[in-house]
Amino acid sequence: GYEMFLLSLIEHTFRLSPALLDRPLKDAIKEELGSIFLDKVIKDLGLCAAIYDLRSIQGGFVVPGEGAPTYTVKFRMLVFCPFVGEIIDARLKESTKDGLRLTLDFFEDIYVPLAFLPTPNHYERDPNPEDGVLWGWDYEEGSSYPIEWSDEIRFKVHSINFPPLPLR
Question: Is 3.30.1490.120 the CATH number for 5-80?
Answer without folding.
Answer: yes
